Amino acid sequence: MTIPSTPDAVPRLEISGLGVAFGGLTVLDDVSFTVGRGETVALIGPNGAGKTTVFNAVCGLVRPHAGGVRINGRPAPASATRLPSAGVSRTLQGLGLFERMTVLENVLVPLSGTRGDHTAEARAILARLGLTALAERPAGALPYPERKRVALARALVTAPDLLLLDEPAGGLGAADIDALAGTVAEVAASGCSVLVVEHHVDFVMGVADRIVVLDFGRVIACGTPGEVRGDPAVEAAYLGLGAAS
Ligand SMILES: Nc1ncnc2c1ncn2[C@@H]1O[C@H](COP(=O)(O)OP(=O)(O)OP(=O)(O)O)[C@@H](O)[C@H]1O
Question: Which one Pfam family would you cite for this protein (predicted)?
Fold first, then answer.
């Protein structure tokens, strides 16, 4: 996918003054942060803090009443269907795989509207994620960790320059989380920017360059993992509430 090049100073993702309300409920209030090129930023916070709503605003699935989202310096697409052409891929908490389609067919879905045969690219991604032997299996027949990897492969096949991961470590064991952390590090090293929503604190501390902490729809802290870990407001709001360690 060819994305117009932008100066390095322009963030891949810039969220400024974002406000979202559902009916009378304010869910996001003046949320601002950036994700730079090749940077991995984690968005953490207690249940209901507004993390998924941030993702949905980036993807054009909810309309903010204040502020905005820019991707590579341009306003984010108003529709999720235009995200791939803006260089953005996303995984979903619910995975959203087509259960009866094979692993390979699932991974080819994002490229189905584009010209040419993309089988070689899809197989390369499958190989990178250790899924080659499962390529012809129906996605619905696989154990959960492999299904999660298929969802990640499907997000990577468009070669995004901004990858949004919604709870990628959820439901995985230690070995799969380690492998996932390695994949995220490789993706970021290739220049792709990553925004990850995740509850698993060790995973977040290991992969994130910076962490943004939301509580009741507001940013209460932003910094390196070391800075955030020691922040009393974060401990009170989140880390002290028995999150996975
Ligand atoms: N479509 C909607 N209509 C009404 N309220 C909503 C809607 N989507 C989310 N909310 C509410 O907005 C708030 C933030 O939800 P959101 O899913 O963004 O939080 P979250 O931080 O991702 O939580 P979790 O960690 O549990 O996934 C919650 O109070 C939720 O109930």
Answer: BCA_ABC_TP_C
